[in-house]
Amino acid sequence: MKLVMAIIKPFRLDHVRNTLSDLGINGMTVSEVQGFGRQRGHTELYRGAEYMVDFIPKTKVEVACTDELAERVVEAIMDSGKTGKVGDGKVFVLDLEEAYRVRTGESGDSAL
Amino acid sequence: MKLVMAIIKPFRLDHVRNTLSDLGINGMTVSEVQGFGRQRGHTELYRGAEYMVDFIPKTKVEVACTDELAERVVEAIMDSGKTGKVGDGKVFVLDLEEAYRVRTGESGDSAL
Amino acid sequence: MKLVMAIIKPFRLDHVRNTLSDLGINGMTVSEVQGFGRQRGHTELYRGAEYMVDFIPKTKVEVACTDELAERVVEAIMDSGKTGKVGDGKVFVLDLEEAYRVRTGESGDSAL
Amino acid sequence: MKRAILIAVAGLLVSGMASADTLDKADTAWLLTSTALVLFMTLPGLALFYGGLVGRRNVLSVLMQCFTIAGIVTFLWVIVQYSLAFSNGGALNQWVGGFGSAFLAGVTVDSLSGTAPETIFIAFQLTFAIITCALIVGGFAERMRFSAMVLFSVLWSLLVYAPVCHWVWGGGWLADMGFLDFAGGAVVHLTAGVAALVAAMVLGPRTGFPQKPMPPHSLPLTVAGAGMLWVGWFGFNGGSALAADGAAAMALLVTHVGASAGAMGWMAMEWIKFGKPSVLGVVTGMVAGLGTITPASGFVGPIGALIIGLAAGVVCFYATRIIKRVLVIDDSLDVFPVHGVGGSLGLLLCAVFVSAGLGGMGYADGMGMGSQLGVQAVGLLATAAWTALATWVILKVVGLITPLRVSEEDEIEGLDLTQHEERGYSR
Amino acid sequence: MKRAILIAVAGLLVSGMASADTLDKADTAWLLTSTALVLFMTLPGLALFYGGLVGRRNVLSVLMQCFTIAGIVTFLWVIVQYSLAFSNGGALNQWVGGFGSAFLAGVTVDSLSGTAPETIFIAFQLTFAIITCALIVGGFAERMRFSAMVLFSVLWSLLVYAPVCHWVWGGGWLADMGFLDFAGGAVVHLTAGVAALVAAMVLGPRTGFPQKPMPPHSLPLTVAGAGMLWVGWFGFNGGSALAADGAAAMALLVTHVGASAGAMGWMAMEWIKFGKPSVLGVVTGMVAGLGTITPASGFVGPIGALIIGLAAGVVCFYATRIIKRVLVIDDSLDVFPVHGVGGSLGLLLCAVFVSAGLGGMGYADGMGMGSQLGVQAVGLLATAAWTALATWVILKVVGLITPLRVSEEDEIEGLDLTQHEERGYSR
Amino acid sequence: MKRAILIAVAGLLVSGMASADTLDKADTAWLLTSTALVLFMTLPGLALFYGGLVGRRNVLSVLMQCFTIAGIVTFLWVIVQYSLAFSNGGALNQWVGGFGSAFLAGVTVDSLSGTAPETIFIAFQLTFAIITCALIVGGFAERMRFSAMVLFSVLWSLLVYAPVCHWVWGGGWLADMGFLDFAGGAVVHLTAGVAALVAAMVLGPRTGFPQKPMPPHSLPLTVAGAGMLWVGWFGFNGGSALAADGAAAMALLVTHVGASAGAMGWMAMEWIKFGKPSVLGVVTGMVAGLGTITPASGFVGPIGALIIGLAAGVVCFYATRIIKRVLVIDDSLDVFPVHGVGGSLGLLLCAVFVSAGLGGMGYADGMGMGSQLGVQAVGLLATAAWTALATWVILKVVGLITPLRVSEEDEIEGLDLTQHEERGYSR
Ligand SMILES: Nc1ncnc2c1ncn2[C@@H]1O[C@H](COP(=O)(O)OP(=O)(O)O)[C@@H](O)[C@H]1O
Ligand SMILES: Nc1ncnc2c1ncn2[C@@H]1O[C@H](COP(=O)(O)OP(=O)(O)O)[C@@H](O)[C@H]1O
Ligand SMILES: Nc1ncnc2c1ncn2[C@@H]1O[C@H](COP(=O)(O)OP(=O)(O)O)[C@@H](O)[C@H]1O
Question: Could you give the ipTM of this predicted complex?
Answer without folding.
Answer: 0.96
